[in-house]
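Deliverable D5.2: sample structural annotation.
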Amino acid sequence: MKYLKKIFIILLLIIGVNSVEATTERTFDTTIKIYDYAQVLNEKEENDLKKSVDKYIKKHNIDMVLVTIKHYNQNTLEEYMELFYDTNKFGVGDNKSGIMFTMDFKKQDIGIKTYGLATDLYSANELSKIINKVEKKDNNKDKLSTFIKYSNKYINEYENECFDENVLIQIDWIGISIISLILSIMMVFIGILKSKNKNLNKTEDNCVKSLIITIKEDCFITTNTKKRKN
């Protein structure tokens, strides 16, 4: 009997250790992209949204997460979104590219946060436009659908407006070549004038002192988080 008790105790200890390890090694189903904690969607609405989200992810290779909440422990919606995204291991690629949309029924806020490559595909102005479109909808499902719709729209507009990197390089070299040619002609012309006017005051020489070329980055975008009251 003593031996049986010892064996029983050892088995309990083994089971207990395994249980602790199971609770500490959490696994996440990153295929789930819609978290309706506020329970504002029915099953059909959630399935319809899931199809749209999956299409977005497949088309742009960027993660998309939709969340509705009523209660959370963080001080701000932004803190909640940051923690939720990181904890659940969302994002595509090494830089965890993705866009997250949250409807906060606790503070009546809505928030959009971008990560990785997505921070380069949405400007602050574009995120504000998406928020404005969402705010015009009354139905919760329509709000989420609108977010997906205009996330697709504005990412496409960005891609169309931006020049291909190779094209930019070609344009820069062409411009520099033209400028160099013009400068060469000017320097030759100035040299001829100098040879004909030796007595010309040196301080009044017609020479090119400096050349400043400013290249505007039309698609310069920083990381943004936009929140507004409903």
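Annotation notes: DSSP finds six helices and five strands in the chain. The domain at 34-162+222-229 is CATH 3.10.310.50 (Diaminopimelate Epimerase; Chain A, domain 1).
The annotation will be released with the project's public dataset once the embargo ends.
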